[in-house]
Amino acid sequence: MSPLVNYSKILSRLYALRRRIVLLRLGSGALASIAYLAGGFLVAAGLSMAGIAPVGVRLTWWLAVFAGLIFILGPIVWRYLLFPPSPEKLALLVEADHPQLKNRLIAALQLKQFLTANAEGYSTDLVGRTVVQADRLCGQIDLTASADPAPVRFWAKRAGILILFAVTTVFIFPGAVNRAFSSFSQPLTTIDEPVSYTLDVYPGNADIVKFDTLLVRAVVRGADLPKRIEFAQRAEGGSWLSENISGLVFTSSASPLGPDSLVFSARIGPLLRDVEYMFSTDELVSPTFTVVALDRPRITGIRQAYFYPPYTGLEPVVIDENDGAISALTGTDVELTVRANKRLAAAQIVFDDGTTIEMDLRDRSATGQFKIERDASYHVRLVDDRGYENPHPIEYPISRQDDAYPRVEILMPGHDADLDEEMAENLKIAAVDDFGFDHLSLIYRWISGGQLREEKRISLELPRGSSNTVEVDYWWDLELIGMMPSDLVSYHVEIADNDRVTGPKISISNTYTLRLPSLDEMIAEIDDRQDENLQSLEEILRGQQKLAEELERLHREMMTAEDIDWQTQKQLENTSAEQQDLADRFNEAAKEFSDNAAALQEKKLASAEMLAKLAEAQQLFEEVATDEMREAAKQLREAMEELDMTEMADALEEMQLSTEEMIKRLERTIAYLKKMQAEQKVDQMIKRAEDLLNQQNNLNERVDSTDENKLAPLADREKAIKDEFDKFADELAALEPMLNDARLAPPSLNEQFCKLGKQSQAPQQMSQAAQAMQNQKKEGSQKSGGQAAESLKSMVNEMRNMQSMMNSKMQDEVAEMLRKALDQALYLSEHQEEVRELAAGLDQQSPALRELAEQQADLLSGAQRLESAIQEIAKKSMCVGGKAGSGLGAVLGEMGLAAEMLTQQNGRGASTPQRNAMSGLNQTAGLLMQGMDKNTGQCQNPGMCDKPGGMMPRMESLSNRQGRLNSQMAQMPELGSGGMTIEEKMALSRLKGEQQAVRKGVEELQKEFGDRRNVLGRLDKLASEMKKVIEDLERNAPTRQTRTRMRRIYSRMLDFQHSLHRQDYKEDRRARFGNDILRDSPADIDLDAVFSNDQWSRLLESYLDEGYPKAYESLIKSYYRELLEEQRLQSSPVK
Amino acid sequence: MNSHYSHLSFFRPARILCFCACFLLIPGGIPVPASAQLSSSARARRAADEPDPSYFTIARLKYPGGGDWYWGSSAIPNMLDYIDEHTNIPVNKEQTRVEIRSDRLFSYPFLFATGHGNINFSDDDLARLRRYLLGGGFLFINDSYGMDKAVRRELGRLFPDRPLVELPFSHPIYHSFYNFPNGLPKIHEHNNKPAQGFAVLDGERVMVFYTFESDIGDGWEDPQVHNDPPNKREAALKMGVNLAAYVLSR
Predict the structure, then answer these.
(1) Do A299-401 and A407-517 fold alike per CATH?
(2) Among A31, A88, A617, B73, which residue has the fewest nearby CB atoms (within 10 Å)?
(3) A299-401 carries CATH number 1.20.840.10
(4) For residue A801, what are the contacts with CB-CB under 8 A and spacing of at least 6?
(5) B84 CB near a chain A CB, below 8 Å?
(6) Considering only CB atoms, which chain A residues are within 8 Å of B228?
């Protein structure tokens, strides 16, 4: 091994020693530094014992610390770090600790150089051997042990002691230590002496709800506490406001704040906005704190949604009016949604009984549901996420609305009514409810012979999709009930609403009755009305006669008086008013007559001929009040206003003449009405006899179909028919004087007619039949009943024959009178012509003119007799109209004038009135001839009158059949209401057969009377409509449309009957197609002229609609007329 | 005072509907299939026999007084058929009668009164009819002969301060659909007088149209009833269309 290697080993061992020495030096330096710093700390604490050390002291301290660290540590640490010991020094250190080395180590280090450069010439081997030896010796010892650890121990002891002192100081003198830290940490800062007390503020930053107040406190603790403290506050965006406040001393050690403390309190608020605050003393200022003003939760919006009960059919309703008051139908679900001003943590609906409903939350809104079942109230409680509640919540009412009761009325007939022959009534029922209906029923009780029968109920169909208002038409056929004359049915309707919550509510209508009047009653009623009517006319006639006398007297006075005095003027006024009153009464009587005629027609109590006569009589009424009379009355009024004597006298004369004319016409009308009343009575008696026959036949049918042991109850019915017959016979017998008065026929014929009832065997047979029924002997009942029917039938036929004979006699009598009148008219005309021709050929001075004047006077007398004769004819027949009478009146005037002129020897002057008289006579003769035609053919359309086999009875029969058919159809179920039973199908088949029969009848009528185009109208369409009905029935598919069609058919058939009854009242009515007559257009309408008074007219019309009393209405009219007149005058141009 | 009547303009919706239909659907206008003109609700109404305001119809006035108000049963159906065939005005062909006291009076914009006899309105009838007419209703009175006296008297009572004026040939009623340059056509001959059309007006609107010596109503009847020549019937029906068009356009 090379000695160099050994040398290297030696060096490495030495370097290891050096590293250890350095480490020990660093450790001891660190410990020295700690000790030094602890000492510095103790010095600083010591310096701070009395207070804050001045800057110079603190700076010096710092410098000393730094310097100390540098200078004290230098010899210990820095020297070894900067100048580490050389190997030789290390070797010496080792040699000193290990003398056994005997400097070999030093020698090796020093001689090593000669191994490589042996300039001195040393023995390299020796050198080498020295190195090797040194290495060997070094290897035997631990060189690092030569490093001395004593400094470390030294400084460790001292550092520990000083640290112990420092820690002790900290515990013993914390204030000093604190001051030392705070002051020595900032050596260059001048630090005041610390305050002797502390200032703490409570609660510091805080949140409170708006309008609340907050108590803030400042707590000072320590010595030399201040007696007052300043409190300052500033609203958001505002300026500071301060105040001095006194404190409260706490000296007790038991105080929560500790002894030697003061508390200063101030109150902030009520708070509207955020506020900053702070406290300050002379020495201390607290930080600035903020009090945040928070909102409480409150309702900013409220919305209700109503979900009505399903039965109401109402759509949900949302009420967004920010009103929490709830008013809805019982059973309605209410969804309440509230919106709050802030996010909510909880919400409840709180009811007045304390129950609550939790609401669902969604951010700032809450929703809750409940059902309305009672009247109540509620409020909404809101809680925000800080736990604040809404203050003073509003208590909202909950009003429960009850489903109203339905209302139902029977609109048609809407009063107690009589049934007609159809035995049916068309009911119109109207009902109203708030939310619709469940069912509608017709409830009735039949009262027969004073006995109340069991209540029955018919369910009526409500229109599909009916809402809260319905109108139901129901064709109520009462034929099947089996009502007898004088029976009545009491009925009402019941309706139930569809309230599913509290149950259906039921209302009923007024109760009405339907009565089946007997024919006697109907006839008696019409008779009474006609008697009253006739009496009214007779009173009017008497009034007119009295008036005529008064007019004559006044006229005479006027002719002689020079001036009119007040009394006369008043009498004239009274006369005029009386005339007006009579005219009004006459109009009323005319209307009454018209109503009676309509009633007769409606109740089918008059034959077609009688109806035609009634219509003619109506024409008579129209002729009574003449235009001339109205004109005369008007003239009189005008003359009275102008106080013109001459005109008054003329007007009086005119009025007198026209009144006389009116009296004549009135007399004629009354006479004609009396005769017609007698004829009508005959008609009615025949009708009653037919009715008795029908009743007996119906009873006989019932007997046939009733078991023998059940016949007894029918005996009462037979007795009732007999009683009715007896009454009829009595009335028929009592009719004789009336017929004789009316001179309808020779008295012997009248007597014969009126005794027919008493002579009939029917009552005895009816009694026998009743007895047999009582004894439950069917055969006897059938036999006697059949005989009674035969007797009645025979009586009816006889009555008809006699009526025909009466008509024939009357016709003959009138024909005779007409013939005589015609002869007389022709005779007068012929002689008038002769007298005229003779007079025309004579000289004015001829004495023959006087003779001709006498002849003219004779002709005048003849014309007056003719007038009387025509008047008599007119009382018996309408074949001579009023024109003949009035035309003859003019003839008399002309003849009188001609006679006067002839007396004055004025033959030529007489020619014109003679010619006029002749013409008038010819016209009268023409009218008489027409009258004869009419008399011989009273019914203008043979075949259409009510003769057997005529169109009218046949159509009537077909109508009745159709009516019955419709009634039966009404009982059938509608298609779609379930399958038909076999019985129903059979019934449909029967109805089809019946409808086919009616259709055939109509078609036959169409063929037979096809040329009567003016009455047939749409018979062909009627038949085709029937065909459609038959098709429906064939398919077993009658629908609502089928029923409607059948009703339409029936209605149209009734129309035809009306039309047949009313045919050809006047020949003038006959319609011929006309040719256009070219002419100039009427002038354009001057709307300004016509409607300048439009405003007043509207006012007037509106007042007339107010229903004022008659007298006041007249006053209103006259007032407006004045206004209109004034306006007209104002708008007229000034000339 | 206009407000007094304002609530009575009950025909306005019906008129507007029908008027629009009239001028949109007349021949030459926009062709619309007949089936398309009937809404299901309208059919339902028709089935229920209720007056549907969207369908034009003529109601026969059952007037009191004894006159034969029922005269000419085929007239209205024929007239409605004609309107249906020659215009596209939606028509309800159901025959309707109405009395003045009927609740349904105000549902019908067009009343037809005809006959030969007397008319005698009660005071209540007059007030109600006045309200109907001033509220927009239309009354066509056809004197089939013999009504003149009663008509003039009753119209005088109905509107005491509104004269019955004869309409000039230039009046729109003679030109509203077909052209009648010489005024009212003469259909039937009675007294050899020219046909005249009179009216009671509310402003410029004709409330009552009264035909005298013309007898249009008879002309509407079946041909075999009066055996009228076709041209006469045609003229009567055309004049009827004019009346309908006039009513629907006012």
Answers:
(1) yes
(2) A88
(3) no
(4) none
(5) no
(6) 1073
Q: Tell me the fold of A407-517.
A: Immunoglobulin-like (2.60.40)
Nearest residue of chain B to residue A462 (CA atoms): B48
Give the domain ranges of chain A.
3-184, 197-294, 299-401, 407-517, 519-702, 706-801, 951-1069, 1087-1131
B166 chain-A contacts, CB cut-off 8 A: 1082
pLDDT tens by residue, A212-227: 888 898 888 888 888 8
- To probe the interface with B, which of A1050, A1101, A1103, A1119 has the most B CB atoms within 10 Å? A1101
Q: Are strands B59-61 and B205-212 parallel, antiparallel or unpaired?
A: unpaired
Structure tokens at A166: 């420092």
pLDDT digits (tens, 9 = 90+) for A614-632: 777 776 776 666 666 667 7
Chain A residue with Cα closest to B192: A1074
Neighboring chain A residues of B120 at a CB cutoff of 8 Å: 591, 594
- A1007 chain-B contacts, CB cut-off 8 A: none
CB contact under 8 A, B127 and A1107: yes
A620 exposed, middle or buried (CB, 10 Å; 0-12, 13-18, 19+)? Answer: buried
Predicted pLDDT of residue B234: 93
A1007 in contact with B at a CB cutoff of 8 Å?
no
Query: What is the Cβ-side half-sphere exposure of residue A894, based on CA atoms within 13 angstroms?
Result: 21
B145 touches chain A (CB under 8 A): yes
Q: State the CATH class of domain A197-294.
A: mainly beta
**pLDDT the model gives residue A822:** 84
Which residues 1070-1089 on chain A approach chain B with CB closer than 8 angstroms?
1071-1079, 1081-1085, 1087
For chain B, 250 residues long, give each residue's pLDDT as a single digit of tens.
333 333 333 444 444 444 444 443 343 333 333 333 333 333 334 334 456 777 899 999 988 876 778 778 789 999 999 999 998 888 888 778 888 988 888 889 999 999 887 888 888 899 999 999 998 999 999 998 888 988 999 999 999 888 899 999 999 999 999 999 989 999 887 777 889 999 999 988 999 999 998 989 989 988 877 778 888 999 999 999 999 999 988 7
> What's the rounded mean pLDDT across residues A379-404?
89
Is the pLDDT confidence value at A941 over 70? no
State ipTM. Answer: 0.72
- Give the global pTM: 0.40
Distance, CA of A434 to CA of A360 (rounded, Å)? 34
Helix pair A778-841, A747-754: axis angle to 10 deg: 160
φ, ψ of residue A380 in degrees (nearest 5): -110, 125
Scanning every residue of chain A, which has its alpha carbon at the shortest distance from the alpha carbon of B149? A622
Could you tell me which of A318, A408, A302 has the C-alpha nearest to residue A359?
A302
Q: Cα–Cα distance between A433 and A442 in angstroms, integer?
A: 18
Segment B223-248, tens digit of pLDDT: 877 778 888 999 999 999 999 999 98
CA distance A128 to A115: 7
Q: Which residue of A has its CA nearest to B161?
A: A1097
For tokens 């631990």, the residue is A142
All domains in chain B, ordered by first residue: 2-248 (3.40.50.12140)
Q: How far apart are CA A987 and CA A298, in angstroms?
A: 76
List the 404-443 stretch of A: residues with Cβ below 8 A of B.
Answer: 411
State pLDDT tens for residues A169-187: 889 888 888 888 888 888 8
State the smallest CA–CA distance between residue A781 and chain B in angstroms. 47
For helices A150-172 and A3-48, the axis angle rounded to 10 degrees is 20
Nearest residue of B to residue A1092, measured between CA atoms: B203
Q: Are A957 and A837 in contact (CB under 8 A)?
A: no
Please give the structure tokens belonging to residue B162: 């509104």
